[in-house]
Every structure is written in C-alpha cells, then in structure tokens.
Amino acid sequence: MKTKLSLLICVILITTTNYAQKVVALHSSTNGVQYFNENAAFQEAYDASVAGDTIYLPGGTHTPPNVFNKKLTIFGAGHHPDATIATFTTKISGNVILGENADGFHLEGVHITSELIIGNTNDISINDITIKRCRWTNLRVPGTQDMSTSNNNVFVENIFNSVYDCRNLRSSSFFNNIISNHAYYEIWDLYFVNNVFTHSDTYGTVTPTFNANNCVFQNNIFLQEGNNVVVGSDNTFENNIFCNTISALGTDPTEVNSYYMTRSEVLVNQTGNVFEYTDNYHLQAGAATNLGTDATETGIYGGVYPWKNYSIPTNPHISSKSISGSSDTNGNIQIDINVHAQTN
C-alpha cells in the first residue's frame, strides 16, 4: 500500500508541474520504480516492463501498445467523471488487444475508447485475465469455437456495449456488469451473474439479447421488452428479472424462479439502451424483494461483487488536490492532497 501511495503522489506532482506530459509509473519487483513522461510514455513503460510488473496510468488519454503480449497489471485513475475531478479520467485511445502471452493480465480503472479484443488473431488461448471497473465498446474473443479457446477469464463491474464476437471464450464469468446491447454471435459455456442488460427491442422479433448455448444466467436483470430475450439452447436461468411479456429463452431452457415485471417497475432511473453516468441502477422497492440465488438482490448491487459507486479502482484513490501556483518567501509550495485507501 505504501508503495502504491508513493507512486500515486509522485505521478500527480510530476504531472501537475508538467501539464503537457502524462507521467506513467512502472513498478517492477526486479527493476524497481521507473517514470516515463514523454508523449509515448505508455509504450515506453510497456517496453521496459517484464511479466508480472504493474503499470500505473494517470488521468489523460494514452496510446496503447499494438498488442499486450505479457502478463501485466495496469491501474488507471478511473473513468467516472465525478470521481476523477482531481486526476481526470484515464482513457486508452483505440483498441486494447491481448496477445497469446497475456495469461494473467489484469486491467482496472480505465476507459477504452474502442474495443477490448482478447486474441490478436483467431483461435489463441488467453486465460486467467481480469477486467475490472473499466468501460469500453465491444468485447471480442474471436475464433472458430472448437480450436484453442480462452478460459477462466473474469469481467467484474464493467460498462460495455456488447459481447460482440466471443466464440472463442469459454468457462468465463461476468459479474455485476452493465451491458448495453447483446451477443451478435453465438456464445458458449459462460456464466452471467448479477448483470443488467439494458438492450430493449420493443418490436419483439428483431433481435434477441443473447445467442447463447449452455450458459448460466443467475440474478440478472433483462430490460428487453420484446419477446426474444435469448435464442440458442440448453441455457439455465435462475432468479432473473425479465421485462418481456412471455418466457422466450431459447430451446430446452432450465428456468427457475423467474420474476416478470414491466421495465418501469425495476430500476430507479434508467431508460434506453445507452449507458449514462446519470442513470440510477438501484432497484425500486417492489423489485428489491425479488432476491437472487444467494438471497441478495438481483442486479449489480447484489451478489459477491456488489457495484462500487463511481467505479473507483482498488488502488489508492486521489479524491482532491490543491497545489499553489507559487512558493512562499521561504521557497515552500503549499500542497494538499487527499488520498483514500480502497478495501475492495
């Protein structure tokens, strides 16, 4: 914790005195701490890193390496505008692409402006990654479904548009995410718990929320108002809230203890398919009585990973800063930085 805090304070001090530069910190158990403050700071930190190292990205927009091809832990300052007033949001411009040597990769607290792609070519096995409290557009894990699949990957408390093409993803879990759209291609053997799916096709027959096979859906909220919630086969549904009028869950589903409500009865304040930071994903009183399989509430505020407001990453968080623009008669500069430790 002391090392993380010292790194954060150093980064914010250097960044404040070098407004045009983005100071990226690299912490290595073998090479110590290094700072990079050129225009290509993120790339330089990546080039200097070895497997197992940690990179800290400050607020601002960063250009990523073409492919992340080593096991790294990367922390940003967060993406919620209300929680990053002191630091600014951390954005990664373009796609984040993981290569075949990225097993164990951990990414947290960043806004990826385009897609998260696991596998720079089809049929690469990339396993044991964690993506937490991030935002991006589409998730892609491309492949042909029965070659070298990617397994045991975890997605926790993220905001993203769709599970766009995840045919090569297997035995992986999605906990407490806000997913604005649907799966465009078939998905297999995945586990969805305490998510909110905001996609809504009011016409009923145009687009299902998911094309899923042999997946498990527990304690989720499906805001889909049309009849086609899921197509595919052999999926299990337990303690989910549905906003459609009939059960339309594909071929041979197992359905246990489903709750059917109108969309206006479920969330405190959320409309449409597109995520807004002003939305409120807490349950209304009537919906809050519909409990999940673990006796906590359905949706993102229940389960093992209840949603953390403002999506603050787990590394120490700088909540405010005040640095005087000039020194006093003794040459001292007044600095006031408030940092909060995170327990989860």
What attributes does this structure have?
mainly beta; 344 residues; 2 domains; Right handed beta helix domain-containing protein; Pectin_lyas_fold; signal; Pectin_lyase_fold/virulence; twelve-stranded mixed sheet; 3 helices
User: What kind of sheet is the major sheet?
Assistant: 12 strands, mixed
Mean pLDDT: 87
Number of strands: 33
Assign a percent range to the helix content: under 10%
**Number of domain units:** 2
Q: Strand portion, in percent?
A: 25-35%
Helix tally? 3
Detail the poorly predicted runs: 11-20
Strand order of the largest sheet: 2-1-3-5-8-11-14-17-20-23-26-28
Overall SS class: mainly beta
Distance linking N and C termini: 13 Å
Keywords: Signal
InterPro entries: Pectin_lyas_fold, Pectin_lyase_fold/virulence
Protein name: Right handed beta helix domain-containing protein
Can you put this structure into words, describing what you see?
The structure is a single chain. By secondary structure, the protein is mainly beta. The chain has 2 domains: 1-142 and 317-344, no CATH class; 171-313, no CATH class. It is built from 3 helices and 33 strands. The strands form 7 sheets. The chain has a 12-stranded mixed beta sheet, sandwiched between helices. The protein has a 9-stranded parallel beta sheet with strand order 7-10-12-15-18-21-24-27-29, with no helix packed on it. A 3-stranded parallel beta sheet has the order 4-6-9, with no helix packed on it. A hairpin with a 3-residue loop joins strand 1 (24-28) and strand 2 (32-36). The longest helix has 16 residues, at 2-17. The radius of gyration is 21 Å and the shape is globular. This is Right handed beta helix domain-containing protein. It comes from Jejuia pallidilutea. Keywords: Signal. Residues 1-20 form the signal peptide. InterPro entries: Pectin_lyas_fold (IPR012334), Pectin_lyase_fold/virulence (IPR011050).
